[in-house]
Design a protein that fits this description.
The structure is a homotetramer. The first copy, chain A, has a single domain, classed as Beta-lactamase, CATH 3.40.710. The first copy, chain A, has twelve helices and twelve strands. The mean pLDDT of chain A is 93. The first copy, chain A, is globular. The two termini of chain A are 19 Å apart. In chain A, helix 2 runs antiparallel to helix 10, helix 5 packs across helix 9 and helix 7 crosses helix 8. The longest helix of chain A has 14 residues. The first copy, chain A, is α+β, with helices and mostly antiparallel strands. The interface between A and B is medium-sized, with 35 and 35 residues.
Chain lengths: 304, 304, 304, 304
């Protein structure tokens, strides 16, 4: 398949969509990103990489970090992880707090904020220096020792993260947060503030398209079964309110972030990352969503 | 792949699970089915069929019928269908009525009862004799002119279907049911009371594994894109509260029914049907769920 | 106290409010009522009656009927009544169906629609001809043998009462409606379609200001304690979403209806009825609410 | 009326109820209170006081403090107060967080925790030293300069108050908390930790039975209309889930606290306080509820 040609065609087709979305501004630091950028990186399981556009520009991975902390916590806890967080889609955003109340503090899944806080809490319990450990892990997956937090984004998140504080204390009131809320949120705000390029993000997702084996070292980090579960969770829960829509339009397990990034993969075949800062009303990248839809349509390769 | 051997092995492995579940009894007629039955049928896209056990016994397809009426309504309405019903997972069962209230009468997806009633309403609007038309369609898909409703099951559903009446009138109060509630429910109770064998059900699902082409006639009923959407909806919404769990454990688009049947498919490769009447607490067949999990594990073929 | 002067002053003060509200039109028959009408009737416990304006015009009492059917069911069932319906305010209208689901079919109180349907179901179980019995009871309370249902209003309610059908079937699914839903709704739509004048309505409310004694006959229909409970329920639950607001502004137990009527009372002292068809957004009479607020302010007599 | 005799009779009648409830233990400090205590104090508007039993023992007023901070905030803000908090009953406890979400951060009423936090936030904005100001106000109302916070109870509340932190941050995320969450909660935990005797609490409630005039100084603190509103809010919202039940059984505006105290009043006639530490499942004092019910029954004086 002529991937470079397909990717170029996609870039051309999504270009007219600039201006239809809005850069996230609830975190002031994110609002400063120039909107007219589009990067794309396809990373085949055989090692070939096809990158395009602003694929070398660092962006804030935000909620995409939840996939990585989840995979790390899964390695630590095994199946016990699912005693503290579910694997079911969450329905509407509106319900999140009510569901947490109704289900006695067990978040519906690990990719909504409440669930991701529980996952981060597990890392805080497990590691002396959880922030360093997260960086170490992401550097391993990307093969890049320069992966860093953006300190001013982390600070910006903290200053406007009242709802996350509310979730944290609510989980704590149910006994499903074992560490100090401030400490867990400090780690959480930092993991969201990690910066990557599309090239790095696509590389990091190779773990999931390789069924749990980190391809550079050949080291197995997750069992086949664990990887299948993580991919399944991404498929059903990775796009908030648009999980159903995305599953249809794109048909790949993946995860989006309000920084404008989307990471996705086809098990056994490839991983990819796309980035463009303008978001639709549901908080997903406008050009990113369209690019992925075009990619699976033009290549004819998706899970469905 | 040695399918007969794999299927035999599965049948042996699930056998000890008899007695762990309970036959549905909320509809008296269903409660009369002898519990210790297990049928399995695999239907490859190349036409090969491997059947096992009680795969020739008729059972009530119940909610699996929602997939067929949905595919018929989709042919009639095209994308306009999605103005009347969503494509997102529904969260907990508990929320169903509240979500309907909050979202002004638009059901979350077409595979929960409220959504299926809207789909049936579309058929009632479109056809002079919607019950006959549903039978005609199912006979086409199965290639079997003897497909019938079980009249006493339909009557039994009606007699205990107060909650479905409530849903129907609630949809009507929002203007999202165009026909008489009684008439829509009559069709709905009949579609749920259709009886099929595993062999017939697997055959009927070929439409979806063939990307929308009915394989006997070679006739295209659904576009590629429509079929992709239907498969995606089955993946994210086909198993009520267990959609996430099923997506992980099995990793195939599918749909279950309280009659104990489960239909599933791998796009481009095969469809299958499994049946065993004993249900777990979420209303899915105990042996059926396990059999599917074993099948994708032993064959190594799932969407993830 | 110079009641005629006070009532005249109130009528003058509320007059400029005509045009601020809207006559109920969800039931077509109600929409035909000429809007610029205002009636007021004060009925003191010592037998004096002061009536003003359109106080002799018949109007549809609608939800005010719930108070009368409740008092009748309470006589029949005693404290057992509260096993089937609660006595707590219902929070927002929005929650009604969800609360019913969460609380397993026990309505929050007997003055919301769900609760009133349970009350009517009790009358249907108790009486051969419940509609005749309701008329008999209202004729006793008003001392007027001409009290009647308006048949075209009852028919109009039935034709647009989908939400009430939904509630009825939902209650039935929980086993908290013992009779046929159609039959209960037929009685319910008729009780809502009873017509009274302000003079008649004020007279009927004397039962509650006389601590349970019907004043014409001197017959005790309710115990002191039962009357206290009914008054308490009217105080906390009588005005839907505006119960708190009304308790503050007016400070009397009472009940409103979408026909534009409001009935209220001060225990041991007086009952009153006010009617004006234009409603505010919460479904309560604009001029009626203001008139009651002025009445308790000008007379200095309320429960607080 | 022979009040001493009536009160003695009540004390005798409630005595057998010891052991039926449980002392609050979610705050460790409260769990240390000896359970078998019962105090009662009636304070007539003419100045007569009748006290009985442990009416001179200090106890933690807890949520009863909400009435006092509310009345203080009302003096400061006037009607603008109701832009930030509603006056409607809250329905079930279960709904609290969801309602806050649905109603965009405006608590249903000022006597649930969310609403009381908004009220405290107003005091934090208004006063240099809000804790000192609250003490000053309570000392004025009780005529006792020794009213104090119990520091170890306040600390105990803080240590287990995760849910209140969650509410605070949630309000903050909606912009309905203007000050630092930590600071508001510090004041809130202190106001809950105020200690009073029944005699002092009954005295403090005289403000509300005197229509807004502080009786010792003759100073008007609240207008008649403001007092009427506060009494109405206590009537409809003062007893959490038991507001309807309490309105019926007792028929007085009032407020309970998990320390086992209940304060109530009959406008224009008397205020009273009762205290007994054992609570029913809804968090109200077992002996206190029964004593109040007996008091209004035996004296025949309630609002209904």
């Amino acid at each position: 398949m002529d991937y470079p040609q397909i990717i170029t065609q996609i870039a051309t087709q999504v270009n007219p969509l600039f201006g239809q979305g809005k850069v996230a501004d609830y975190i002031p630091e994110l609002g400063k990103v120039p909107p007219e950028q589009f990067g794309f990186c396809l990373h085949l399981n055989d090692g070939q990489v096809f990158a395009h556009g602003h694929s070398g520009v660092k962006f804030s991975i935000q909620s995409i970090s939840k996939v990585f902390t989840l995979s790390l916590a899964f390695q630590l806890m095994g199946e016990d992880l699912w005693k503290r967080v579910g694997v079911e889609p969450s329905g509407t955003a509106f319900n999140s707090l009510m569901q947490l109340e109704y289900e006695k503090g067990i978040p519906r899944n690990p990719l909504i904020n409440a669930g991701a806080l529980v996952v981060t809490d597990i890392l805080v319990s497990a590691f002396q220096d959880p922030k360093a450990e997260i960086l170490r892990y992401l550097r391993l997956l990307t093969g890049n020792d320069c992966i860093q937090f953006n300190a001013s984004v982390a600070q910006s998140e903290r200053n406007s993260g009242y709802r996350n504080y509310a979730l944290g204390y609510f989980l704590k009131s149910f006994g499903n947060l074992h560490n100090d809320v401030e400490q867990v949120l400090d780690v959480y705000f930092h993991q969201c503030a990690v910066e990557m390029t599309c090239v790095e993000l696509a590389a990091a997702m190779q773990l999931f398209s390789h069924h749990g084996v980190e391809p550079h070292s050949g080291q197995r980090l997750l069992t086949m079964s664990q990887t299948k579960r993580l991919n399944a969770v991404m498929q059903t829960c990775g796009f908030y309110d648009e999980a159903g829509e995305f599953t249809f339009a794109v048909g790949l397990p993946g995860k989006s972030g309000v920084g404008g990034g989307i990471a996705a993969l086809l098990p056994g075949q490839y991983s990819l990352a796309v980035w463009s800062p303008e978001l639709n009303k549901k908080g997903n990248s406008v050009l990113g969503m369209k690019a992925l839809e075009l990619f699976t349509t033009l290549t004819g390769r998706s899970v469905f």
